[in-house]
Amino acid sequence: MGKWDKRRIWLHAGFILSVLLLLCISRYYYMGYPGEKGAWIDVADYIFLPAFIYLGRWFCIKWFTQNRPVLFLFYIIPCFFLMLIFWFYFVMFAFNLPNIGFLEFSVSHAPLFIIGVITGILIKLVKAYTEKQVQDAKLLAEQKQSELNLLQSQLSPHFLFNTLNNMYGISIAEHTRIPALLLKLSDLLRYSVYETKKTFVPLKEELDYINNYIAFEKMRISDRLVLAEEIEDVNDPRVMIAPMVLIIFIENAFKHAKDTLEQQIHIRISLKISGNFILFTISNSYRKEKEESGILSESSGLGLANTIKRLDLLYGVDYTLKSYIQNNQYNVDLRLKIM
Fold first, then answer.
1. At CA 171, angle to CA 167 and CA 174, rounded to 5?
2. I want to staple 203 with a disulfide (CB 3.0 to 4.6 A). Which of 11, 92, 239, 317 is the partner?
């Protein structure tokens, strides 16, 4: 007999003993010690009651939960009366009551056994409903995890594609800068490949990655970049964040800012902790003649769309994200609950 079978046996035995103990204590509390024959019959009824509870439970499993209520009633009613008849003859002979009538016996004893049957049915229905809810929750969690894994698997290729595309342009005009950029790229890829497999990482690690990325962009853009940073130092490893969330917005800011007609690229990055939330803001210059209609415009790319899906999956209602244009700047405000 397996471990699970033994566990079930102990569980059912504990349930039966609990029911008997509760009924006997209740009877003793309200009616005192069972000194008379009728009182002992009551105790015997309590001992037989679990049989009716399991009758209701078993028929509920067999037919009611299978959406076959007609068969359920067809079988349970005759079985109930057969068990009642059996108990009638047992009580009549065990307690020496030859003059007791079946109708009289049924009127006084059947209500308790009907309650037992109903209790068994309700227990099974509650259990079936709970198991269904748990199963649905597991399926939903598995579905979300599969979708999350797919989205995370697309982060590194997206970043690598954009970076290599930028480096190709540099290699044509300023090939001497390529070795230093490749070293920085190696550090960035190491994080994006290995750390993005985790659901959450310390914010400090994510900020180290962001600082490496900014250093990479400074080397790439050189004198055109006018960067303002207000990034709070976060050394507490308990402050967690989903990996590669912030970097997508920073990457898009650099991508779109360099498309402006102005000689200089203006980018401002702000991150601070306020209470139980991470407040992240980034703004960049933009082209007026190609004004974006929102954070998910056609030019936003796959990475940003996937990031928003990941935010929905991981944070749900615990984040807010908005974008707007103000004073020739494209702004993104992100508010994340610390995980």
1. 115
2. 239
Cα–Cα distance measured from residue 286 to residue 330, given in angstroms and rounded to the nearest whole number: 6
Maximum Cα–Cα distance for the chain, whole Å? 113
User: Whose CA is closest to 315, among 280, 263, 266, 270?
Assistant: 280
Alpha carbons 45 and 115: distance in angstroms, whole number = 12
CA separation, residue 53 to residues 40, 83, 120, 304 (Å): 21, 12, 4, 57
317-325 contact pairs (CB < 8 A, 24+): 321/295, 322/295, 323/292, 323/294, 323/295, 325/286, 325/291, 325/292
**Angstrom distance (rounded) from CA 19 to CA 46:** 8
CB 94 within 8 A of CB 34: no
Mean pLDDT taken over the chain: 75
How confident is the model over 128-170, as pLDDT tens digits?
Answer: 888 878 877 776 666 566 555 555 555 556 566 666 776 776 7
Q: In the chain, which segments carry CATH 3.30.565.10? A: 154-337
